[in-house]
Amino acid sequence: MNLLENFREGMRSIQANMLRTTLTALIIAIGVTALVGSLTVIDGIQSSVNNSFAGLGANAFDLRNREIFKIRKDGEKEKNYPPIDYREAKLYKEKFGHSAIIGIKTNVSMSAEVKFESKKTNPNSRVMGTDDHFMDIKGYKISAGRVFSTNDLQLATNVCIVGVDIVDQLFGKKGNPLDKEINILGQKFKIIGLLEKKGSMMGGGDDRVIFMPLETGRKMAEGRSLTFDIVTSVPNITDIDNVMEEARGVMRVVREDKIGQPDSFSIERSDSLAKQSESITGILRVAGFGVGFITLLGAAIALMNIMLVSVTERTQEIGIRKSLGATPYLIRLQFLIEAVVICLLGGLGGIVLAIIIGNLFAQLLMSGTASFIIPWFWMSIGISVCVIVGLFSGIYPAYKASKLDPIESLRYE
User: Fold this and answer.
1) Which of 38, 156, 234, 332 has its CA 20 to 30 A from that of 212?
2) Where is this gene product found (predicted)?
């Protein structure tokens, strides 16, 4: 009996026990779906996060207030650094504007309720005052209308650019909000531009935003202090580290930080959050692989049990084969081929289910912003694991079958 004939015999055995083969392959498919599906969900989430941060630009960095945690360190209370004010933001832009493109932003309100006639939004809209560069650096695109003009910025006119979520709530899907007046924090504003849908890793926060000219935002906040954030875009990404250090030095001068004292502000690259999210999803991948592997291990044990039952049922067949000259090696090979083929059949079905279910869950978790993922790497891993599982599950039953005594096997009832 040659190798090819042994393979054909293994396939005939699988076809002769189609119900058992189907159920066994289904067990493997569930395990592969758990393994590849969970990893596909994580990759889908990561793609959504990457899309959210892609517009920020890897060649930009932010200057913000330094985060203060009210804790004691070595018996001393952490110093409370003052926020970046308007004068400091403008002075930094004047001093550093020759080396990079600089945008300034201030949060006028983080929980505004916007009204149009009898309709109003939920009190979760973000109202921000910006200059002429901030939106472009941060990747906000205009789908209709125009950006702020020089007169808008200098004269503090009551005009605004709104996100798609606010448009949907106030005007519906088919409404035309351009040149309409809305009420923001008790004042009338004319809509001059609409933002493209941007999405967000936290559920669409970048689409619930309203931009107004920076001076307009300052005018609306008269009587209360505002905090200003600064974003700096570098023409050449290879220079970003050097430019960041130069910007740090300029800001220390602006903030009058003394030599030897820590920065009174924070400086952070725009892609640092994306890198942090990648490290988090890396941990999730390990966890997902672990869960899927445990599921596959259970499927492997179930397959081994089924193969042992198959050896018992086919004891007489094994005795006939041995009496006709089949060697223990060929007997082992036949059972191993059966186990691997069953695993591969289940693996292919599991991969198809994993792609469908994984992408579906990723879309649900990320509010439809995740890209459709075909996880080629995880598919190859899944197939490889199926072969390993087949060998692991079939090696003991195959060994047991090869050791059966042919005379005893022929008399087995």
Assistant:
1) 234
2) Cell membrane
Query: CA distances (Å), 139 to each of 84, 144, 230, 233, in order?
Result: 23, 15, 15, 11
262 & 279 share domain: no
pTM over 0.85: no
Residue 106 shares a structural domain with residue 246: yes
Task: Tell me how crowded residue 2 is: count the other CB atoms within 10 A of its CB.
Answer: 8
| Cα 153 from Cα 104, distance rounded (Å) | 12
Per-residue model confidence (pLDDT) at position 129: 94
Q: What is the DSSP string of 38-49?
A: HHHHHHHHHHHH
For 273-306, what is each residue's pLDDT tens digit? 556 666 777 787 788 778 877 877 887 787 787 7
d(CA 250, CA 229): 15
Structural domain ending residue among the three candidates 270, 293, 311: 270
Dist CA 85 CA 64 (whole Å): 10
Counted domains in the chain: 2
- Count of CB atoms within 10 A of residue 158's CB? 16
